[in-house]
Amino acid sequence: MKTTLSERLQKAMKYRGNMTQGALAEASGVAQPTIWRLVNGKAKGSVKLVDIANALGVNVDWLANGIGEMEGSNNEQKFRLDKSLNISVWDETGETDDFV
């Protein structure tokens, strides 16, 4: 069964203990009216879906497109509370031990 972004977002919010739109807005750093539009199907997407998915702890591809499992791949990257992330540095031979 195909689902919409709105349906997936509502499912993820319910899965996270009936998270409110306000709580999701605060956790993701996204304006609450944007969350409202996404939850109510008034917006087809947002450039902030990565932030929303991270706040909910769900797979970005699942939230955006319904691809894969709800919990998954973007959980490998651990964002800090300030939303920063260590990015691995690669050179011509592959991944190094450095990060930015």
Molecular structure report:
With 100 residues, this protein is mainly alpha-helical. It has one domain (5-75): 434 Repressor (Amino-terminal Domain) (Orthogonal Bundle), CATH 1.10.260.40. It is 41% helix and 10% strand. It has helices at 5-15, 21-28, 32-39, 49-56, 60-65; strands at residues 88-91, 94-99. It is elongated and about 45 Å long.
CA gyration radius, whole angstroms? 15 Å
Q: What is the ordering of alpha helices and beta strands?
A: HHHHHEE
What is the helix tally?
A: 5
Number of domains: 1
Task: Spell out the blueprint of helices and strands.
Blueprint: H1 5-15, H2 21-28, H3 32-39, H4 49-56, H5 60-65, E1 88-91, E2 94-99
Antiparallel strand pairs: 1-2
Helix pairs in contact: 2-3, 2-4
Which terms would index this structure?
434 Repressor (Amino-terminal Domain); single chain; 100 residues; 5 helices; mainly alpha; two-stranded antiparallel sheet
What's this, in brief?
The chain has 100 residues and is mainly α.
